[in-house]
Design goal:
33% of the residues lie in helices and 21% in strands. The chain is of the alpha/beta class and 510 residues long. α4 crosses α5 and α10 (311-320) packs across α12. The chain is globular. The termini are far apart.
Length: 510
């Protein structure tokens, strides 16, 4: 016979249960005493954050909550982790000694977009597997590169248009890349082989990325006045975005060379007008007056052969970048003693003209350079546009490996320290938005770039007064300072100002 508990006993148990104090919630991580900047551009608010299973599950007053890890933010800012939308760290992250990516984490960057400028592998599944196999510190989002796709199909015959069948083969590779999780198509139309491609070819391929909701991001055809000019090159990105029905991004936007200073305004006016008529177009930018590329690309663009290079052409290209004093050698394997010296230094030491010194170097090997060619007024103007995202255009290098551009170790810290705190060019809220929710929205990174319940717990905790970009043009390997805590997918990678050994990053999918 089934026993039925009398109603009076059940009622008594209910009263007893109701009388018991509720158990406080338990989290993997609780952050207390912080000032939350949610990434939207809103001012900070005071609230605690509860994290479980890598996500933010509660925002509010959590004084009674328990946690495996309790972080006292001590009145510091708590922001979403920063997103670098243009990073050259993809290949380096596969190396065991660089997988944690400490120079990146030290800036509060928790997500990188890699394979920019039309580069990277065509087989993104293999790249994903290589990154996932050894684990990585930050999250990574992959792009499929136009130049790599073009190389795979046209091989050694790059200076011509693809046939209809070849264009279909290129479309198929872009489609496969998108199916493998790419966030969009990148191009480097200043560099070979991208420079050989007509706009119509790029539109056809960008449209494939657009079908998947992806973006088209481009190192434009001319950032200065080498060929069609910077303004027309920005217009080309707009055309590709409009006709390809895809979001377009002008990569590391600038006006390169003294002849073009001031043209940032003309370029942004084109973007403003395009956006006003409904074209989805954005820009990204790193906060430095110097750019970086290869010596050959800077002085012999478009595939000009070194052996037949006219000295007058090299001389003019040196001039348009600000002169030989403005070109600093970053890396040159045949003679590392040249690293850190300017082309003018090298020419004087050899008793030759700068163009002769450059050609002589290039006959032995290419070099990477740091080129001082941007104006502060243009930098400020581009930075203040509401559609400009933050980026580094930086690589991940080992200490002592040449004299690279400091942007890889300092771009995000510099944006906060110099352009927010010291110069007041943009507000803190505006800067955080440009580094978090704006790129997450543009690239379609679901549940990232914001602090809200349900979002991924990629977070940075810091005092603005503590942030320093210590990497310089003469000492570029110094790590940024000021991050008290950085969490990637809910796991601390910096705790109390010190690196942990954690590698919780994921290879994301669109």
């Amino acid at each position: 016979m089934r026993y039925t508990m009398p109603a009076w006993i059940m009622a008594g148990l209910a009263v007893l249960a109701a009388a018991q104090p509720p158990q406080p919630p338990h989290f993997a991580v609780v952050i207390r005493n912080g000032r939350l900047l949610d990434g939207s551009g809103n001012p900070w608010m005071r609230a605690d954050v509860g994290i479980r299973d890598g996500r933010i599950v509660t925002i509010g007053r959590l004084t009674a909550a328990t946690a495996d890890t309790v972080i006292d933010a001590a009145n510091r800012l708590v922001t979403p982790g920063f997103i670098d939308v243009h990073s050259h760290a993809g290949e380096s992250l596969a190396r065991a000694e660089l997988r944690q990516a400490r120079p990146i984490l030290a800036q509060g960057v928790t997500t990188l977009v890699v394979n920019p400028d039309g580069g990277g592998p065509v087989d993104l599944a293999s790249q994903r597997a290589a990154l996932e196999k050894g684990r990585i510190g930050p999250n990574v989002a992959l792009l499929i590169g136009h130049g790599s796709v073009r190389n795979a199909v046209l091989r050694d015959d790059q200076k011509r248009e693809p046939t209809s069948a070849e264009l279909d083969a290129m479309r198929a590779l872009v489609r496969r890349g998108m199916e493998q999780g790419a966030f969009g198509l990148s191009s480097g139309l200043f560099y070979t082989p991208g420079s050989f491609a007509k706009t119509e070819e790029v539109i056809a391929l960008a449209a494939v990325a657009g079908e998947f909701g992806g973006v088209y991001t481009s190192h434009i055809r001319d950032e200065g006045d080498y060929d069609v000019g910077v303004v027309r090159s920005v217009e080309e990105v707009i055309r590709i975005a409009e006709e390809g029905r895809v979001t377009g991004i002008v990569s590391h936007m600038k006006a390169l060379g003294p002849d073009n200073w001031g043209l940032a305004v003309a370029s942004t006016q084109r973007i403003d007008r395009a956006r006003a008529r409904g074209v989805s177009v954005f820009a990204d930018q790193y906060p430095y007056e110097a750019s970086s590329t290869s010596l050959r690309a800077a002085l012999l663009p478009g595939g000009i052969e070194v052996a037949t290079a006219p000295p007058a052409t090299v001389r003019e290209n040196i001039r348009r970048r600000g002169g030989a004093e403005s070109i600093q050698i970053a890396s040159y394997r045949p003679d590392t003693t040249l690293e850190g010296k300017t082309l003018a230094d090298i020419a004087r030491a050899r008793g030759v003209a700068p163009e002769a010194a450059a050609i002589e170097m290039l006959t032995r090997a290419n070099a990477s350079i740091v080129s001082f060619n941007m104006s502060e007024d243009d930098i400020r103007h581009i930075m203040t546009r509401a559609y400009t995202m933050a980026s580094s255009d930086g690589a991940l290098t080992m200490p002592g490996a040449g004299q690279p551009h400091p942007r890889g170790n300092g771009a995000f810290a510099r944006r906060l320290a110099v352009y927010v705190r010291d110069r007041g060019v943009i507000s803190l809220e505006f800067a955080i938005r440009s580094m978090t929710s704006l790129p997450a929205t543009v690239f379609g990174m679901k549940d990232r770039g914001v602090i809200r319940e349900g979002a991924i717990a990629d977070l940075a905790i810091f005092n603005l007064e503590d942030i320093r970009d210590r990497a310089t043009y003469t000492d570029p390997h110094e790590l940024a300072e000021g991050m008290a805590w950085v969490l990637v997918n809910g796991v601390p990678v910096i705790a109390n100002g010190k690196f942990t050994d954690a590698v919780p990053g994921a290879v994301l999918r669109r």
